[in-house]
Amino acid sequence: MTDIQPAGRGFLEYAPAPESRAILHLRDEYGLFIDGQFRPGSGEPFATISPADESHIATVSNADDADIDAAVAAARRAYDKTWSKLSGRDRGKYLFRIARLVQERARELAVAESLDNGKPIKESRDVDVPLVAAWFFYYAGWADKLDYAGLGANPRALGVAAQVIPWNFPLLMLAWKIAPALAAGNTVVIKPAETTPLSALIFAEILQQADLPPGVVNIVTGAGSTGSALVRHPGVDKIAFTGSTGVGREIAKAVAGTQKKVTLELGGKAANIVFDDAPVDQAIEGIVNGIFFNQGHVCCAGSRLLVQESVHDEVVDRLKTRLSTLRLGDPLDKNTDIGAINSRAQLDRIRELSAIGEQEGAERWSADCAIPENGFWFAPTIFTNVQASHRIARDEIFGPVLSVLTFRTPAEAIEKANNTPYGLSAGIWSDKGSRILAVADRLRAGVVWANTFNRFDPASPFGGYKESGYGREGGRHGLLAYLKGAGA
Ligand code: TAP
């Protein structure tokens, strides 16, 4: 289904689903990873479950304020005594080592990610995990070249970075955060999302294997309150947050008036614009990939399809035909296209917004697929006759739901695409290069894809305008967010 093809696509072959689970060597209980060691948290431990069947995977520690103090103190000690004293070349060696270990343990990481998150194994195997390795390789290469970052000779790290990440790409978001922070010379305390801590805890084992000095990366699991305590901690110098716009706003308020530097990667409601001269076969695949990849749990998902009126019926008919071929089911089955929704809460939100779509007069079509009895599932769904004022055209659904709107002229397409409080990404499908460039220039979106969608590369900066946040991750820009003397 997806055309996302980072290096290494297809380099792993998987056993059928039941056996793939067997390659995981999970502990029954996971502690917090502080100062290079696992240790129990002081809060009430919690279970992480598989969203595909609601089965228990492991028990995970819950960090309270005292644990956050310990993690931040460990990161500060490591910064003062070890990490800030290493040369860039030596920091780079650790990052290269981590990247290689991620590759070595790729199968295990992919299975853990699909088990805990619900995403299809072919996505975690071909997209998430290869990109995680690519991110560490890319920033490993920067570590001894910071003098070329544009900040003069010897740019300096910020110190201790507090990082809070969401559940949709648990390991990839961790890599986006940790790799540039370490390359620039910072130490880290990171909090994974409550529903997807597993791959981060396996990653902690990789850090031990890599002999990363204790305290350079600390991983504290817990709920939203753990994230809140971490970002408010007076001992942190930098905050990097990816998640909802609501929580991003709270964080921005909490740090107002402090010296902390902040980058926020928040929500989106991307327009995927299809002109009447678009290559239709390619566009259909791009639309499907844009909204149904990772069950639509993607901040930059192409959740609003803007299609030129003259090709609307053809595009919608072909989309329905294509969606009828997608296979929904066991995330660990390599033939699965659509996995499980990550949590009951997220499923409830998708159901609620879809019901509102129907009440407001949009026309709903859902693929006719068998829904498993247990777990959290939602069939791929398209809404047509959507008006710009409808909630399903304005709110981020963060699920496998596409809202289709129409336009007549390029100017109308641009106006509708920009008619959103968000500004993270957009897509344009057209045969004319000049039209693509002219439209892209007027879209208020941090990333604009042309005749493709959801392509990621560690060298390419990613981030939003307006309520999609500020600061960039990836590329040289992503590095600057962790160095003194640069913006954000
Ligand atoms: P959030 O509820 O915002 O959660 C994100 C992270 O913040 C989780 O680790 C969460 O912990 C933690 N958190 C919750 N409340 C907090 C608080 N008051 N202070 C500090 N941390 C807190 O978002 P989500 O539901 O996980 O993710 C979905 C949202 O993230 C969507 O809106 C999506 O667009 C956005 N997103 C954006 C991007 C980019 S790059 N822009 C990428 C991925 C996702 P718990 O899990 O324990 O609640």
Word description of this protein:
It contains 16 helices and 18 strands. The protein is an alpha/beta fold and 488 residues long. Mean pLDDT is 94; it is low at 1-16.
Please specify the SSE layout and strand pairing.
Elements: H1 17-22, E1 29-30, E2 32-34, E3 37-39, E4 46-49, E5 56-60, H2 65-81, H3 88-104, H4 106-117, H5 121-142, E6 160-164, H6 170-183, E7 187-191, H7 198-209, E8 217-219, H8 224-232, E9 238-242, H9 245-255, E10 261-265, E11 271-274, H10 280-292, E12 304-308, H11 312-323, H12 344-359, E13 363-366, E14 381-384, H13 391-394, E15 401-407, H14 410-418, E16 425-429, H15 433-442, E17 447-450, E18 469-470, H16 475-480
Parallel strand pairs: 1-5, 6-7, 6-9, 7-8, 9-10, 11-12, 11-16, 12-15, 14-15, 16-17
Antiparallel strand pairs: 2-3, 4-5, 10-18, 13-14
In terms of per-residue confidence, which ranges show pLDDT below 50 for 5 or more consecutive residues?
A: 1-16
Named once each, the bound ligands are: 7-thionicotinamide-adenine-dinucleotide phosphate
Q: What fraction of residues sit in β-strands?
A: 15-25%
SS-based structural class? Answer: alpha/beta
Distance between the termini: 36 Å
What is the subunit organization of this protein? single chain
How many helices? The count is 16
Describe the largest sheet: 7 strands, mixed
Give the CA-based shape.
Answer: globular
Can you count the beta strands? 18
Give Rg in angstroms: 22 Å
**How do the strands line up in the largest sheet?**
13-14-15-12-11-16-17
Protein name: Acyl-CoA reductase-like NAD-dependent aldehyde dehydrogenase
GO molecular function, one term: oxidoreductase activity, acting on the aldehyde or oxo group of donors, NAD or NADP as acceptor
Family: Belongs to the aldehyde dehydrogenase family.
Pfam families: Aldedh (PF00171)
